[in-house]
Amino acid sequence: xxxxxxxxxxxxxxxxxxxxxxxxxxxxxxxxxxxxxxxxxxxxxxxxxxxxxxxxxxxxxxxxxxxxxxxxxxxxxxxxxxxx
Length: 84
Description:
By secondary structure, the chain is mainly beta. The chain is 13% helix and 35% strand.
C-alpha cells in the first residue's frame, strides 16, 4: 500500500466522508457498476466484483481495506472505488 493510501485509510477510519476532489490525486479513483461482494473460498478477505467504467466485462477488486456503511465507496488494495 502506498503512503497516500495509508493516509487515506487513516482519514476514512476517523469517519471522514470523502469527495472525489478531496482524495490525493496519486490514489486512483474508479467506478464499479452492478457490483456485489465476491465469494472467497480460499481467502478470508472480502473483495468486490462488478463492471468497470467501460462496462465491458467483469472485474474483481483487491482486498477491501475500508468500505462505507452506506455502500457508496470502498478503499481496496489497489484503488478507491465509487460504487454505483
